[in-house]
Structure formats: C-alpha cells, structure tokens
Specification:
Arc Repressor Mutant, subunit A, alpha/beta, Rossmann fold, 5 strands, 5-stranded parallel sheet
Length: 228
Amino acid sequence: MENTLVKSDIMIIDDNSDLFKSFQEGLGHNCNLQFVRSRNNIIKHLAVISRPDIIFLNVSIKNADVFKILLTLSNSEEYGDIPVLLISSGDCIIDRTKGFSSGAIGYIIKPFIYNEIAEIIESIIRFKQRCIESHNIRIESELIRSIKNLDKANDTLIDTDLPENIYMKYNVTLREREIIELLLAGLLNKEISVRLHISKRTVEFHIYNIYNKFNVKNRLELLNLFKK
C-alpha cells in the first residue's frame, strides 16, 4: 500500500546505499530522498545540496563517529533545527541514551514498519509547520512571565502540582510532566534543555506532543488550562 505523506525532503546518512534503497521501496514516491555516504564534514555537504526536512542517521556506520556527526548537526546554528532520527539494527541502551543526549529526537530499530516511519515523518512535518505558523515563542514566554508576575502581585498562585489522575487522564509521561512544570514557570526552550540535560530540539518535540494531548495551540493556552 502506498503511503500518502506530505511531500518532504529526507536525507539518509549511511556507509552504503542499502538503507536508502529500502526507504525508496517502503515510502514510494512520497518523499524526495537523498543519500549521503558517511562523512564528518556534513555541514559543508549540507551547504551545497537541498536542505532536508528530516535526517535519518545510521548508528552502525563503519569508520565514522556517528555521535560526532550528530553533535555537529545539533550544534549548528544553520542546520541545528533539522530533526535527526537514529537508525539501529538493535536496541542498545548506550547508543539510545547517547543519541538523545547528542540531539536525536528518535531511535528507530530495524526491521522497519514503513507505515510507522511514514507516521513519524508526517508528525514531524506537521510539527515544523505548526512552529512556522505559531507566535514567536520568546514573546509568548515573556507574556507568561508578565502574567505570572501580575498573579504574584495579587497573591494569586498557579498550582502546577495537578492531581495524578489529571496526568493519567491525558497520558502524560514523566518527562512531559517535567517540561510542563518548567513551561508554567516561564522557562524558555533553551533553558529547559539545559535544566533537563536534553537538546532544544528534543524539548520542542515534547512540547508538540504536550500541546496535542491537552488540545492547546501555545503556551498561553496551556497556562490558562492549568489555572482553571
């Protein structure tokens, strides 16, 4: 069955073309796929090709420091916003943990179910579009801080310690709960990433999932929901 993905540019970084060919067969013609043989000067390569929407990086590339490549991408001012998902032939806790701490937003294990891959791509593309259409995050954060300061002046406190059954009702994970409490405290995405020792991109991905679960569009709506 052919997938009905929103047309997107996908980059595959690997040391051979097998993974690229597998993606071609699994995703059909719904993605513009680019194959990049493993290289440490990935930033220079990105400068001369079409900018991808998403990057899939094989953990098992031979003769290459995969996590150095991942860190280079994550720390790049120009390309640090491109979501990177790791591909692995097995569930290695060390690789998974190191990958997330280096900036990956996902860890996918072979063999693939390409309908799930398509859903992941679709979700990321929707998230990026939503970021483009949303209000500036910094302005929202400053607005929230102003509201919180006003509430404090009026001795009105915001209770961020909601009952456990509320979190259970919305299926909120422990990581999402940590991020919700920091959002309500007025922290910026970058400040949250430093506090929780995760990448800014991972924070943004969690925030997207939180918004979906609570059916809100921005931080202000989330704040208002928790004040009720």
